[in-house]
Amino acid sequence: MVKIIKIAAVQTNPRLMNPGYNLEAMMNYTKEAARGHASLIVFPECSLTGYMFRSRREALPFAETVPGSATERLSAICKELEVYVVFGLLEKDKGKLYNAAVFIGSDGIIGKYRKNHLPFLGIDRFVDRGDKTFEVYRTPIGNIGMEICYDIMFPEGSRIMMLKGADILVLPTNFPRDRTGDVIKHVIPARAIENGVYVVAADRIGTERGSTFAGRSKIVATSGKAISQASATREEIIYAELDLEIARQKHQVVIPGEYESHRARDRRPELYGKITEPVDDTDTE
User: Fold this and answer.
1) Whose CA is closest to 185, among 226, 155, 150, 156?
2) Can 58 be counted among the known catalytic residues?
3) Which residue ranges make up each domain of the chain?
4) How far apart (Å, rounded) are the C-alpha atoms in residues 229 and 181?
């Protein structure tokens, strides 16, 4: 496994209900990012389809199986360029519809993630909740975990992936502008620093059916500091070089024998039982 990798977050403006156009755009951006020497290239949530669907029926014709035509074409370009890609799509499977992300490498599909936490917004009003746990995929370019957008508001998923050995958390997003500025500014860095992992958030731009998206894609260091951040309005690629050894050093030594900490060992799981219990809505109103 390499020690230092270069990654890219691609901030795009997908066209609603136009997967052909969006796929071609992702293919072209993948080539550009590869020319920039990126090994891992991350696209936004629903980058294949757009997000602001008005019904499940409207969205279903644009959903794909995994594997399917989009993953096959992206697998081919990953093999040609020897890169890894994460992108968002709507996945159909056995009568279910998911907001999903797929992780592809030169040998094809490595893994996929189905969004577990669903806001009442856009297509998420009509898809099924994810049915899989938070996994970490061990690859030659590092140990990669995936979440999608609103998932980042729930720290448990990020923590689980850290405990499973994640070096990098990949976050395809469609953050709405004016409602998610604090999430971009504070929550994403918090997930990085509290777990000692890198976070790559690839957001989209543009306006879809009256909803404007925030952009401001960012790549965050284990310290919580932004290494690279995109604009709020432009399609662009941002890059960063990540030292994976830093993400693996959970034992932080400030003064040997006097001031040390360990993000994994210092936890107190015996105190966290409440976190697994179903919520009584009357307790949270």
Assistant:
1) 226
2) no
3) 4-252
4) 13
State the CATH architecture for 4-252.
Answer: 4-Layer Sandwich (3.60)
Rounded CA separation 276/176 (Å)? 29
Q: How far apart are CA 263 and CA 270, in angstroms?
A: 16
17 versus 251: which is more confidently predicted?
A: 17
Catalytic, out of 112, 149, 208, 218: 149
Cα 251 to Cα 181: distance, rounded to the nearest angstrom: 32
Taking only the tens place, the pLDDT of each residue in 46-84 is: 999 999 999 999 999 999 999 999 999 999 999 999 999
User: What is the sign of the dihedral through the CA atoms of 55, 101, 169 and 229?
Assistant: negative
Tokens representing 151? 């998932």
Q: Which residues contact 70 (CB under 8 A, 6 or more apart)?
A: 19, 23, 48, 64, 87, 89
- Which entry of 64, 78, 112, 115 is annotated as an active-site residue? 115
Query: Given 45, 91, 147, 208, which residue is catalytic?
Result: 45
- pTM exceeding 0.90: yes
For 41-50, the pLDDT digits (tens) are 999 999 999 9
Spatial contact of 169 and 147, defined as CB atoms under 8 Å apart: yes
Q: Are 115 and 127 in contact (CB under 8 A)?
A: yes
- Nearest by Cα to 46 from 150, 144, 145, 142: 150
In the annotation, is 46 catalytic? no
Query: Is the per-residue pLDDT at 28 higher than 80?
Result: yes
